[in-house]
């Protein structure tokens, strides 16, 4: 299979920015040239697809570093196949799969299973993320090197943050020697105290137990201290508060090896946007105040926030259609991430190149891969129509999850073609 | 005026005019409970389900008597007698109940927002008898009825509310309702029991109990919810709480001479309120209970379409 994309505007920060012709062959980028320089292919060649890229943007395949694929164990919420197809539909060519499956991805067998299911799905790629501790219990280190051999790209205990500071120190030291980043879900569960939304006026009015900003930022500050102690790479997941961003900004100024991500809902919505007791607005960390939302945008603009990930967390409808405090945390994000993030460009908070940096290049760097659009690299590529207007309709999601707070929202900009390993895994209108 | 609300979910969704109309209607209902034969045929043929997922004695009996005095058929189910213990979801439970065609579901639930959610899932009327720490509209309305009886109105009244505001649906509903009716509400509690942003709900936060009670026309004490205390570190001991936030005769002397003493019950005597104050001349705690039945009769009558029928006839 050969694909030629002609006359497309390539935005690959640090590599290319301009109109190019791209040729993809045998899974790799074959050539990237000035327009009109590619050799003509025979019109009747059946295994060649020529795409007119005029008016479209080609970017390195987008990578979402925080996704819950639910398989093995909770296939009723999502399977590796539906999750990876949803990613493809959202223009995302690779996702990092969180380890809180059933069983937990805390050994090489589960890692191998995830990769083999992903191969069968014939959609986007998966980069498995292994658990730090056995069964996410926060007590004993897993055989992380063994999992690395099987294919994990990072470790985390995600939703069950490591409370034991000594275990965290040892994790960082051990993973530094293995060259694996440690992803931190920063939350002091004791401070969060079983809350279900942001602590603030909307929670007070609705009588919902609140989660204070400090539940996140105290753990960010602890792990910054441990990054300094160990020199290990610490990556903070789904940042939601002004205080966390401030702490990370200061840590970066000091030259510490920390990075972080936020999710589209944290720069798009606040706790005041939630219709009363709408469980599709319930996630952890929760939607914060407008002050926090502004701080997140500022962090994206000034580079404190390195990347955008979704924390895609599909749930079945009956896990959401219950009392607010009993409803499952989490929303889906794979199919709305690009559209919501492009709004940052339209609003002037980021240039398109900066957005591509945050959705493709910085995530690749975190996962230790090079996804530049250059001959010889695996051909992972997202083709974007910046002008396509569309309305979020959960019923048309490829994901099994329908739990989104963005139903009915008008977005501008969408992926029209997603290529993974030189294969078209998603295409509309071309 | 026609009362058009199908559901009574919280005070915030009621206008000043609607609150006044409910209180007027309740005053008319009060006389029925004083008759030798305490029953009128107004809601004959209507069915009311009392669905109490949380323990309750006074509120449940009050609603039940209110329904019976209007000749409605009332059926009570509780958590232990319902399918909730078998793992049925709230949505399934109330949709099952609705299939038996009740006219009104009265519900008490431990989760904030449960009544609002149920109102979206069923067609019949829903009256919130207390949801988590969100709202307890019938309690606030009966409190307002009691204040109105004694004080004639609300404009400019100084009302002090003291106790665990964070966990109190009664406090939230009273703050919203009383401030909407023109009263000045001041609250007081240790910092552990004052929720973020409460001052934006229509009250001021006093620095201590003496300041809160000073010149008050109404002092409303909240029950310390010992069952919520487990491990939540809200206060060190009942002794210390009583010393700082208990209403005794010395503190009461700071309030206006004719100040009303209120409490939604049940009382923790010697903790938030001393026995002498609870049983004293200024206490209207039992009047609150009496008014509760009349107020709930009014709510049943109004959501069942009483005022609409009266107009169309």
Mean pLDDT of chain B: 93
Please work out how many helical segments of chain B DSSP would assign.
13
What's the total count of β strands of chain A? 18
- CATH architecture label name of the largest domain in chain B: 3-Layer(aba) Sandwich
Largest sheet of chain B: 5 strands, parallel
Per CATH, the superfamily of the largest domain in chain B is Aspartate/ornithine carbamoyltransferase
**How do the strands line up in the largest sheet of chain B?**
7-6-5-8-9
What's the SSE blueprint?
The complex is a heterodimer of chains A (430) and B (313).
Chain A: E1 2-12, E2 16-25, E3 28-33, E4 48-52, E5 57-60, E6 62-67, H1 80-89, E7 92-97, H2 108-121, E8 125-131, H3 144-150, E9 154-156, H4 165-178, E10 182-184, H5 189-192, E11 197-198, H6 201-206, E12 210-211, H7 214-230, E13 234-236, H8 242-253, E14 258-262, H9 264-268, H10 290-302, E15 307-308, H11 337-346, H12 352-366, E16 381-391, E17 410-420, E18 423-427
Parallel strand pairs in A: 1-4, 1-5, 6-7, 7-8, 8-9, 10-13, 11-12, 13-14, 14-15
Antiparallel strand pairs in A: 1-2, 2-3, 5-16, 16-17, 17-18
Chain B: H1 16-30, E1 47-52, H2 58-69, E2 73-78, H3 90-98, E3 104-109, H4 114-121, E4 125-131, H5 137-151, E5 158-162, H6 169-180, E6 184-188, E7 204-205, H7 209-213, E8 218-221, H8 226-229, H9 238-245, H10 249-252, E9 260-262, H11 275-278, H12 285-303, H13 306-312
Parallel strand pairs in B: 1-2, 1-3, 3-4, 5-6, 5-8, 6-7, 8-9
Helix pairs in contact in B: 1-5, 1-12, 2-12, 5-6, 5-12
């Amino acid at each position: 299979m050969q694909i030629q994309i002609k006359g497309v505007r390539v935005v690959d920060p640090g590599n290319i920015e301009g109109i190019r012709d791209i040729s993809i062959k045998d899974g790799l980028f074959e050539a990237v040239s000035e327009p009109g320089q590619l050799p003509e292919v025979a019109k009747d060649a059946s295994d060649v697809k020529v795409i007119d890229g005029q008016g479209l943007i080609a970017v390195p395949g987008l990578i979402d570093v925080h996704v819950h694929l639910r398989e093995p164990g909770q296939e009723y919420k999502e399977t590796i196949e539906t999750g990876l197809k949803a990613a493809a539909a959202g223009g995302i060519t690779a996702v990092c799969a969180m380890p809180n499956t059933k069983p937990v991805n805390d050994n090489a067998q589960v890692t191998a299973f995830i990769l083999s299911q992903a191969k069968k799905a014939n959609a986007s790629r998966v980069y498995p993320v292994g658990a730090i501790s056995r069964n996410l219990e926060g007590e004993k280190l897993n055989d992380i090197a063994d999992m690395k051999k099987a294919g994990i790209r990072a470790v985390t205990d995600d939703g069950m943050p490591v409370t034991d500071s000594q275990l965290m120190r040892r994790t960082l030291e051990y993973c530094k020697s293995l060259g694996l980043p440690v992803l931190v879900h920063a939350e002091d569960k004791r401070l969060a105290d079983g809350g279900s939304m942001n602590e603030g006026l909307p929670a007070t009015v609705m009588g919902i137990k609140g989660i204070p900003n400090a539940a996140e930022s105290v753990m960010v500050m602890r792990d910054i201290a441990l990054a300094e102690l160990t020199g290990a790479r610490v990556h903070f997941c789904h940042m939601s508060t002004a205080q966390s961003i401030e702490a990370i900004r200061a840590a970066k100024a000091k030259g510490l090896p920390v990075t972080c991500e936020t999710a589209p809902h944290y720069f798009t919505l606040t706790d005041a946007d939630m219709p009363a007791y709408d469980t599709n607005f319930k996630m952890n960390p929760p939607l914060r105040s407008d002050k926090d939302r502004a701080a997140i945008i500022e962090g994206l603009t000034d580079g404190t926030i390195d990347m955008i990930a979704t924390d895609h967390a599909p749930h079945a409808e009956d896990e959401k259609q219950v009392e607010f405090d009993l409803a499952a945390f989490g929303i889906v994000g794979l199919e709305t991430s690009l559209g919501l993030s492009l709004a940052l460009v339209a609003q002037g908070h980021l240039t398109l190149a900066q957005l591509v940096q945050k959705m493709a290049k910085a995530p690749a760097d975190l996962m230790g891969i090079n996804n530049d659009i250059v001959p010889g690299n695996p051909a992972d590529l997202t083709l974007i129509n910046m002008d396509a207007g569309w309305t979020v309709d959960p019923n048309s999601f490829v994901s099994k999850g329908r739990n989104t707070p963005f139903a009915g929202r008008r977005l501008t900009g969408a992926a029209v073609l997603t290529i993974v390993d030189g294969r078209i895994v998603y295409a509309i209108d071309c | 005026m026609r009362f058009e609300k199908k559901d009574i979910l919280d005070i915030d969704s009621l206008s000043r005019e609607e609150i006044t109309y409910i209180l007027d209607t309740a005053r008319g209902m009060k006389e029925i409970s004083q008759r030798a034969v305490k029953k009128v045929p107004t809601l004959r043929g209507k069915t009311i389900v009392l669905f109490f997922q949380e323990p309750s004695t006074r509120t449940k009996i009050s609603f039940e008597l209110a329904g019976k005095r209007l000749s409605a058929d009332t059926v009570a189910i509780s958590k232990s007698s319902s399918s909730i213990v078998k793992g049925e979801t709230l949505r399934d439970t109330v949709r099952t109940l609705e299939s038996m065609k009740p006219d009104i579901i009265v519900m008490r639930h431990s989760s904030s927002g449960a009544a609002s959610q149920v109102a979206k899932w069923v067609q019949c009327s829903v009256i919130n008898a207390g949801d988590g720490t969100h709202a307890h509209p019938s309690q606030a309305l009966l409190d307002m009825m009691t204040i109105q009886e004694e004080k004639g109105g609300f404009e400019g009244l100084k009302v002090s509310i003291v106790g665990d505001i964070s966990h109190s649906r009664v406090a939230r509903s009273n703050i919203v309702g009383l401030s909407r009716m023109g009263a000045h509400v001041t609250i007081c509690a240790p910092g552990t029991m004052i929720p973020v942003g409460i001052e934006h709900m229509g009250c001021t936060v006093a620095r201590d109990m003496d300041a809160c009670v000073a010149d008050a026309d109404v002092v409303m004490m909240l029950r310390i919810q010992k069952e919520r205390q487990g491990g939540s570190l809200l206060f060190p001991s009942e002794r210390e709480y009583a010393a700082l936030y208990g209403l005794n005769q010395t503190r009461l002397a700071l309030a206006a001479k004719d100040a009303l003493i209120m409490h939604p019950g049940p009382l923790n005597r010697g903790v938030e309120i001393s026995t002498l104050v609870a049983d004293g001349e200024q206490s209207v705690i039992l009047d609150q209970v009496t008014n509760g039945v009349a107020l709930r009769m009014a709510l049943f009558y109004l959501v069942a379409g009483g005022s609409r029928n009266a107009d169309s006839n």
